[in-house]
Amino acid sequence: MPDHPAPTGAQPQPALSPSPAAPAWSDADLAASPHAHAAKADKVRAMFAAIAGSYDLNNRVHSFGRDQAWRRFAVRAAALKTGDRVLDVACGTGDLTRAFAQARPVAPQSVLGVDFTQAMLDVAERRRQDDLLRERDPQAAERIAYRLGDAMALQLPDASFNVVSIAFGLRNVNDPLVALREFHRVLAPGGRLIVLEFDRPRLPIIRQLNDFYTGWVMPRTASLIARDRSGAYRYLPKSVATFLTAEQIGESCRRVGFSDHRFHRLTFGVCICHIATKG
Length: 279
Prior knowledge:
Elements: H1 40-51, H2 55-62, H3 66-77, E1 85-89, H4 95-101, E2 110-115, H5 118-133, H6 138-142, E3 144-148, E4 161-167, H7 176-186, E5 187-198, H8 204-226, H9 232-241, H10 246-255, E6 258-266, E7 271-278
Parallel strand pairs: 1-2, 1-4, 2-3, 4-5
Antiparallel strand pairs: 5-7, 6-7
């Protein structure tokens, strides 16, 4: 197991999965911006606990497999160097964590995946153990460790990582600026921040098609696949439409001390990869 910094405080406790009779996100909750809801953190945790088992399948199906390509782009953008230590925040079931650990030609020394939903981490760890048992790149699996944690209060030492990543998780935290400040704190000088986040395409026709797909088709089909009553797939398009723009994310990065911010629009602007440096 890789040598990761030891935790320096109490870890958040996992929430129970929501009852089918009490969805995490109701129609009333989503009538306005979900980012302003007082109980957003609890609702997000309950939502992910409810969909953890089908999360990967829905990602593949509803992104038409592009989610894997976006993660590969993120790994390349990190420009890994020998000996790098990677922190993957809001790691979920570990897709990006594993992509970093399996990077070629240069692999990192270690990758720590942190998430605040235990059910997601349970899936990630089962996948890691399966890779070890089936000898699917066991060296990569041994580079990985997972830990329960909060993006806004990382129990990790200052300047202890060379790369910090977060894929489709920045809009799920209560205060993105606080999370970005934490990412800056745990990065060593010269460290790279990689953020993958959804956006709305700029081309009008693509934007309209994407809005119809994410706002009407995907919530129904994804909820059916997941047998989900938490409201997770109705929250997703609403949370994207009401979140920071790419330019606002860049400004937030600069406000907490990052430099050299740039971003790339992927798949017609459905996904954006942000890159910034701790100067």
